[in-house]
């Protein structure tokens, strides 16, 4: 089965590594790309310890077997379930026997599947250190295969970690053709099926393909999207949203809609769309926009719960982040939605309360945002600009930063029409005073009217708009956004509207001071 193409590292000038040089091939062939190519390079360079993180150990073993067979290298495998081919069943004995299997010329590999549960044994740790020390000259290599990159402190500096990537579309197509072998079971084109399978492991994709054959008699994207949504929702930090309403059901935001739609459909060969940062009070439609964008450009929307990445064990947060971002990359092209990012990264000041985990998480996310692969469009939202890390808002992280203000009169009129129709409110019923209302508050009024069987005016008595309940934070947010953000509705640099004070940002008192020229000026 062909392996995922990840590109090759730049060639470096060769140098004599003495006894560490691979003498088994005077002119070794260029290594294949992906996991096989990376392992071939490390073994040829006489790295004695390699840790492969993978959820599919049998796939890694198959890759190793194919590599060793082609290079005439020796391979012994050990598994915690006692399935040991060519070696002892006891892990300490298997590691202790590794140095004796090398002759200093032909590489000898010991692949251990899920050995992490045995590393509480000091005897095993000592045997591993001894085997690694001998491996540099005897050409023996210890390959650990486990789901995470966790290692005891004694071994962390002795192993180089290699991630086993999720299958790309070429590999998924090979799996699909291996399952759908009868005439008419493979649809044409196959692209929608492969897009639906992207982000699944090889085993998960095979199961989903088989389920599709049972349900529909052919490969269909439906069961794959269903399985993928369940997998992501099973306690992980990612969730999947597909379908729903597009931009037509979302009032206002004309400039924001236009920029994102053009950036994602223009197809420029020289520039890739990165994403947008959306700032505004709660209820103005930032989350709805992210979901509608995916529907508008026919991409799945992945929601990342940054707080869900945090974990109590050392290294677990970094591992969760690596896995989540690997899934996002595998599902490209997609829209990645990060809601209320300022709350998730509130601890990035480097305080001791979390041993710097939040700061490291921010660094990982910033690095990924700078180097994220093509096809991932990121939509981050924030309600409080003062809590945003400065590194996140600098130029280049996103294509643009927009401020979503409270909807104007014309926008509110369209929002009323949308929710009147959704909740069955009579079109002729008068609309209550809605100055300073958000779209969420208009929806709440229509929903309460239908739920309680009362008029819109009476339902409005149960709604306290954010422009009243959070007037001071809203005014502060508008001042911060003025001149710093783009206007999501009108485009151009955001400036508060003339009626912004009427929408809830009214000053607490109107105070005048006498000027030196005898005139008056207002502090407000």
Automatic annotation (TrEMBL):
SMART domains: AAA (SM00382). Coiled coil: none annotated. Residues 1-32, 497-524 are annotated as: Disordered. Residues 13-25 have a biased composition (Basic and acidic residues). Residues 272-408 form the AAA+ ATPase domain. GO terms for biological process: proteolysis. GO terms for molecular function: ATP binding; ATP hydrolysis activity; metallopeptidase activity. Keywords: ATP-binding, Hydrolase, Metalloprotease, Nucleotide-binding, Protease. It holds the Pfam family AAA. Belongs to the AAA ATPase family. Highly divergent. This is Uncharacterized AAA domain-containing protein ycf46. It comes from Alienimonas californiensis. The lineage of its organism: Bacteria, Pseudomonadati, Planctomycetota, Planctomycetia, Planctomycetales.
């Amino acid at each position: 089965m062909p392996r995922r193409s990840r590109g090759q590292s730049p060639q470096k000038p060769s140098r004599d590594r003495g006894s560490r040089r691979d003498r088994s091939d005077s002119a070794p062939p260029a290594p294949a790309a992906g996991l096989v190519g990376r392992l071939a390079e490390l073994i040829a360079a006489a790295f004695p310890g390699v840790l492969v993180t993978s959820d599919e150990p049998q796939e890694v073993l198959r890759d190793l077997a194919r590599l060793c067979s082609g290079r005439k290298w020796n391979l012994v495998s050990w598994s915690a379930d006692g399935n040991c081919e060519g070696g002892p069943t006891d892990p300490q004995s298997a590691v202790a026997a590794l140095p004796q299997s090398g002759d200093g010329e032909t590489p000898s590999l010991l692949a251990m599947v899920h050995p992490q549960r045995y590393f509480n044994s000091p005897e095993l740790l000592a045997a591993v250190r001894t085997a690694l020390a001998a491996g540099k000259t005897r050409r023996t290599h210890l390959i650990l295969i486990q789901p995470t990159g966790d290692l005891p402190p004694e071994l962390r500096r002795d192993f180089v970690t290699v991630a086993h990537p999720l299958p790309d579309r070429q590999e998924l197509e090979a799996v699909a053709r291996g399952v759908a072998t009868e005439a008419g079971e493979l649809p044409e084109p196959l692209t929608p099926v492969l897009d639906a399978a992207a982000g699944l492991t090889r085993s998960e994709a095979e199961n989903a393909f088989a389920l599709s054959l049972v349900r529909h008699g052919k490969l269909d994207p439906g069961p794959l999207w269903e399985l993928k949504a369940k997998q992501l929702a099973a306690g992980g930090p990612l969730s999947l949203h597909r379908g729903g309403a597009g931009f037509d059901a979302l009032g206002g935001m004309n400039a924001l809609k236009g920029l994102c739609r053009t950036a994602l459909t223009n197809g420029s060969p020289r520039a890739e769309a990165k994403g947008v940062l959306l700032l505004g009070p709660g209820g103005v439609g930032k989350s709805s926009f992210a979901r509608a964008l995916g529907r508008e450009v026919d991409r799945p929307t992945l929601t990342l719960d940054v707080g869900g990445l945090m974990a109590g064990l050392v290294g677990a947060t970094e591992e969760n982040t690596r896995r989540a971002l690997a899934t996002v990359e595998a599902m490209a092209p997609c829209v990645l939605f990060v809601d209320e990012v300022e709350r998730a990264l509130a601890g990035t000041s480097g305080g001791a309360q979390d041993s710097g985990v939040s700061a490291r998480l921010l660094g990982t996310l910033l690095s990924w945002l700078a180097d994220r692969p093509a096809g991932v469009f990121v939509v981050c939202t924030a309600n409080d600009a003062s809590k945003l890390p400065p590194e996140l808002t600098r130029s280049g992280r996103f294509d643009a930063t927009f401020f979503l203000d409270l909807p104007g009169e014309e926008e509110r009129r369209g929002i009323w029409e949308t929710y009147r129709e959704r909740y069955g409110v009579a079109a002729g019923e008068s609309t209550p005073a809605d100055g300073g209302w958000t779209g969420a508050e208009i929806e709440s009024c229509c929903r309460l009217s239908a739920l309680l069987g009362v008029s819109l005016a009476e339902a409005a008595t149960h709604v306290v708009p954010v422009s009243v309940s959070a007037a001071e934070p809203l005014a502060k947010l508008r001042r911060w956004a003025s001149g710093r953000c783009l206007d999501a509705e009108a485009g151009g640099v955001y400036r508060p509207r003339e009626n912004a004070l009427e929408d809830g940002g009214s000053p607490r008192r109107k105070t005048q001071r006498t000027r030196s020229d005898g005139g008056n000026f207002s502090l407000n």
